[in-house]
Amino acid sequence: MILGATAGYACGCIVLARVAIFPVAVFAATTIGFFDAMATTLRQVLVQIDTPDRLRGRVTAAYQMVSRGGPSLGQAQMGAVAAQVGAPLALTLGASVTLVYAATLSLRGRTIRRYKG
Question: 11: closest CA among 32, 37, 34?
């Protein structure tokens, strides 16, 4: 489900980057929000399930720092790419990397595919 949500997020980003029709752009943005919420919730659930009770607060704090702070580290780089090639192409490239990553993990990531919780 996480890989599917990640792929759905990436596809929504690609559609948003490429579309010039406002209602389709609104639908793409809604799709992005839906799949982002789904993937975020699933990841948080897995962290909560797999963390021993005595470590849950510390692990959750570390997870929050990485999941909220980590993406911010790439914003300057994506801004630089967007300045060079334009925002639509930059968003398409970033989403394509995410889509390839999700597809690769779904095909080759045995740990993720076999996870039983």
Answer: 32
